[in-house]
UniProtKB/TrEMBL annotation:
PROSITE patterns: NA_SULFATE, RCK_C. This is SLC13 family permease. It is a multi-pass membrane protein. Signal peptide: none annotated. Residues 205-290, 298-382 form the RCK C-terminal domain. It is found in: Membrane.
Amino acid sequence: MTFEIGFVLLVVIGMLVCLIKEIARPDFIVFCALAVLLLTGVLSPSDALRGFSNEGMLTVALLFIVAGAVKQSGFLTPIVTKSLGSGKNQRRSLLQMMVPLSTLSAFLNNTPIVVMFTPVVRKWCKEREISPSKFLIPLSYATIFGGTLTLIGTSTNLVIHGFMLENGMDGFSMFQLAIVSLPAGLLGILYMVTIGYKLLPTRKTSEESFDESSREYLSEAYVESNSPLIGKTIEEAGLRSLQGLYLIELIRSGDRTAPVASFLKLKENDRLIFTGVLSTIVELQNIKGLRVETGTKLKLESLQNGSASLVEAVVSHQSSLIQQTVKESRFRSKYDAGIVAVHRNDERINSKVGDIKLKAGDTLLLLANKDFANRWSNSRDFYLMSQIEDPEIVNPKKSIIAIITLIIMILLATFNILPMFKAAVLAVITLFVTKTISFEGARKHIQFDVLLLIACAIGIGIALEQTGAAALVANYFVLMTKGAGVVGAIIVVYFLTTLFTEIITNNAAAVLMFPISLAIANQLSVDPMAFFVTIAIAASASFATPIGYQANLIVYGPGGYRFSDYLKIGIPLNILYLVVTVVIVYFVWIF
């Protein structure tokens, strides 16, 4: 092993450790790893920047815009709502939901589909007194099944496709991955409506948990007549620096103010609503001129009327809020909303809201203005679990244009009339020319952090390949699986890829495994396509944890799930996908 190989492997291992420990956002960690390789001369500037001109990465950026136009058309919601049916036969409704969702996610990004339909499914379940936990994990899994069906079903497929083109190969055709993923997906749906349905828990949603335990964290106080607090601001009254309580709302003469600004001056009979650790309520009792209401039966629903409303939001993987406390993030002033409570791992965090360090997957209960959901529906910091009533595209003609543009783009790429990248360029130009989507709207839908992660990860993959580190690792795996031959190598590649996906991200997993798999294929003298298909399926088939795939994370809190639920339901699915993939890949590309 040369010094250069050892250094690259050390950087990659350090990057993986940082990703697992979540010391910063994934895109920043991968960018820093690439910067180290560039600054130390392992990578030239041109090689370090190759990921930013990679065809797969650029195609992902264009498809964000196309998917955004289709999403905001409002065309998709009625499809799934009608497919759910009456709910009298829950297994049938589950099947009727999963099939169209898998079909949609074969052509659109998984994340917006799950974000869009989670509140729809929860509302449908609530109206029929069905536990949403019976439907939300299947909702996430259905989009994963569909995402592996086509070249454009998930960004991971396009990243591998772009790598193949850079290495002088043809890349994937539109439905090539369906040779493996279609039978695997059908078996997955069958599993979910039979065995999986029995394993799915019947749980309270985060919304119900927040409501039922409201007496444990909500308290109220009144500003008394002749109180020395009258005329003082919230800051001056010391209501911003309480030990365990957080001021979320002020009610004055029936008018509600939420969130409460620090410069707001108090008046006689003001009613103040606090959230946090009720054992510290003595703080309020010690403030002269403030009367604390004990034994209150304050309910969440009583917090909202007029301009104030309650909204649920899930902290995303790419959120700038991760690893910051609520106070450090200046959440109240930044989003013009107050956090009432935080739900994590099937339970509410019992501490002062301002001191809670947020993590990906946390479900936030927010008290905000009525227009909050529409203003922050495209925020990268969290996914809103409230339905957006007014889609951005209100013109039916533009909705039709968005759908037709998507269909034509798919047909052009499927029949090799245009490469996928050019078809996507044509689609985006069409959407702009017809004013179906604006430049500002397009910017909202492009996930720049995902693109940065992909571009930087590609640079790291190039370093693994050029230094010989990938060949060294590949040689080790070939020796390790010598007795099992090609099948053993495919199993190892699948297992490592899915393991990386569960603990880091799917795109980073695919990029790291590509050069290693290419080296393994060359050493075994077999068609590398077998390994590339294996990586594409394994990088997306993430079922065993809520943190490996964004779709799973989105439904984690709203469904009231525990980590163990994913293990119990997802591990059999992971094994199912592993077996189907290895068998079909062997007989189609190896045998």
